[in-house]
Fold each of these.
Amino acid sequence: MSSFNIGDWVEVLDDDISGTVKGFESDGRISIETEDGFELTFLSNELVGHFDDAIEVDRSALQDVIVEETSSNSKKRKSTKRQKSIPPMEVDLHIHHLTNSTKNMSNFEMLNLQLDTARSQLEFAIRKRIQKVVFIHGVGQGVLKAELETLLSRYNNVNFYEASFSEYGAGATEVFIYQNG
């Protein structure tokens, strides 16, 4: 399966995200909780662990790799770079995920809580240079979706569109954040 255990501290390769391993998904992904309390999933080859033990290297295996790399570099070969697919950050805006009780809240207060959450999560993604965020808002009457689109249209560095129907159904908006420099 993977060389990680629940509770291990890990960092995401090629990204400024780190956290604690929380669990293992059935599809082989590893669930981590970031320092900011977000739960994200990654493939094991996208993570690197921080272990207190010294790293041991099998010198014969290392020599095999060096010989293989040297011989493959001497032969001309076509580049087969693969596009790395980074999973998007998901933010569920359903009200029952944001508060324990809506008993004394008006519809206006609930909508404001959902929009404030969306705004803060988007700002977090921009700060942490996370490129894709999926806001799960549900279908309903479309009020939250319309207000979310109004909020997103205020940002010059984002594009937003319907998220994948096969993954999220009809009630999600995907946001692509353009990184500056």
Note: The first helix runs from residue 59 to 74.
Amino acid sequence: MNEIDAALICKALSDAHRLKIVKMLTGGELCACKLLEAFQITQPTLSHHMKVLVECNLVTTRKEWKNTYYALNCETLTSFRTFIDSLNCSQACQKKDCCQEEK
């Protein structure tokens, strides 16, 4: 995963509703109607949130008759987690004077 893709996911997850949706989807695929029940928002607002999550490839969608089902894209989530896990402080930065200017 590159920095641009990671930034898009971070932006998508910066909204509390979308973060809750992702958390709900960790339990498996859900119909939009079930997601809507968990919030006090309108269907168009839910659609907007889902569009953001789908556009950053964190969530997949499938239609079945009149219903839309959403699921986590595990490949993208795993790549994002690996990217975040790679952001470690080096031993040098753990010292108190790491970022202080030389005197």
Note: The mean pLDDT is 91.
Amino acid sequence: MKKILGLLVMVFISVSAFAQIESHVKWSYAAKKVSKTEAVVFIKATMDDGWHIYSQNVAEGGPVKTSFTFAPSKDFTLVGKPSEPKGITKFEKVFSMNVTYFENSVIFQQKIKLKAAKTTVKGKLEFMTCNDTKCLAPTEVDFSIPVI
């Protein structure tokens, strides 16, 4: 019985080690009020060296673009869509097309119209990260950003 238990523990440890998720992007968040009725939410991605994420503006047939879904709230309304800086546009053989992506770090910004003095902007984002040799499966991340 002890041998079987020991074997099961070793298998569990081995499976756990292989089940660790590979991650090369860290997300951080901030918000800034620009007036009593307006604020900007900042969503920053910081990528490991050699890794990149894709723009929100990628054509069909390309990689999974970065996207944001904001939870509805009675405390604010979205003003337009999230903005992003100019990225790097390059032909990627694996997708047989030009794609726009970001290396090192990128800050996405979402303007909101406030209906309350304080609120929390919640939602989720989806992104895909690649390097020169492989792409990881698309990942979803929940976020919660206080606006004070």
Note: The longest helix spans residues 2-18.
